[in-house]
Amino acid sequence: MEHAKIADTPVELGRLGFGASVIGNLYRVTPADEARAAVETAWESGIRYFDTAPHYGLGLSERRLGGALRGLPRDSYVISSKVGRLLVANDRPRGMDDEGFVVRDDLRRQWDFSRDGVLRSLEATLERTGLDRLDVVYLHDPDDHWRQAAEEAVPALAELRDQGVIGAIGAGMNQSAMLARFLRETAVDLVMLAGRYTLLDQSALDDVLPAARELGKAVVAVGVFNSGLLSRDHPAEGMKYDYQDAPPDLVARARAIAEVCTAHGTSLPAAAMAFPRTHPSIINVTLGMRNPEQVRRNVALHGQVIPDALWDDLRAQGLIRSDVPDGGAGRKGSRCL
Question: What pLDDT digit, counting tens, does each position of 156-170 carry?
Fold first, then answer.
């Protein structure tokens, strides 16, 4: 797989990453053998970047991902996890988690971006994964915790990075404005941008992407299907956009984009995966993959060559912003596997 280096760090990311939220039972149960097979299929397909977090399934994702990777050559893959939500004993369990994961709620999440919280979170993650180190660590959704995240968590992570304990540090969020602040005002190396540079939302062009390009820092794109609306060849009513039912105007826009994709001999999901790579600062697209079938589908979509004329037509029809860069994803960025 083609790789891109995170500037000023030893870390390189493949162009396609495995997002492990779904193997933490996001929205529905994923059997343990299916989750393991998904990771193994990703490995066999050439994927070498794997992302997880304590939040995903109250630690289940970390346990499953670590178990599946254990035994593979440690220097041959990159793994990232996150800090900001400590997992602590739940003294008032109701039976099941209420934050989207189908797991028992014997544990609960506790926001903590303090230095101590960061160190405790990392120690717990290493215990759950059974691995000896993390390559990348992100602050996870620090939207309401800017001051503590910027003044305590980032310096703690930067110290570990400078000691060689962690390879690179970043922040991951569903908004782009604060990610731009992290790039400009703190010592992070990269950001994980969720849903704000897609075929339906290019708002990151107003803040975080210019900051990344100016500073030479990297961006990992996630949520490129905007919770599902861009994941099928033919978008339909009732599909999700940003975790909610998609409004009719966005469904209509997604259908219009799909028609242009068909006219250029490709599909909406293939274009949705390729689109973030039109920006030079985006070095990786990471997708949630629940089972081997999803892995194989995503790898095949990722390998398609998207004609540059598609982006020209989408701009001309006002379906994407006129300031979206040409990128050349169809020539260079799509055949990575």
Answer: 999 999 999 999 999
* CATH number of the CATH domain containing 239: 3.20.20.100
The SS3 of residue 253 is helix
Distance, in Å, from the CA atom of 268 to the CA atom of 98, rounded to the nearest integer, reads: 32
What residue has token string 């980032």? 154
Query: Which tokens sit at 120?
Result: 């405790």
User: 173-193 burial by CB neighbour count: b if 16+ within 10 A, else e?
Assistant: bbbbebbbebbeebebbbbbb
Structural domain count, the chain: 1
Q: Which residues of 48-61 are buried (b: 16+ CB within 10 A; e: fewer)?
A: bbbbbbbbbbbbbb
Contacts of 27 (CB under 8 A, 6+ apart): 100, 101, 102
Question: Which residues lie below 8 Å from residue 162, measured CB to CB, with a gap of 6+?
Answer: none
With tokens 């940003």, the residue in question is 242
Could you list the residue range(s) of the whole structural domain that residue 38 is in?
3-333
Give the Cα separation of 115 and 155 in Å (integer). 8
User: Cα(129)–Cα(63) distance, rounded to whole angstroms?
Assistant: 5
Concerning whether 56 is annotated as a catalytic residue, the answer is: yes
Question: Average pLDDT, whole number, for the chain?
Answer: 95
**Residues paired with 286 in a beta bridge:** 17
Residue 156 is classified by DSSP as H
Helix or strand run (H / E) with residue 89: strand 85-89
Give the global pTM.
Answer: 0.95
Residue of 27, 49, 56, 197 marked active site? 56
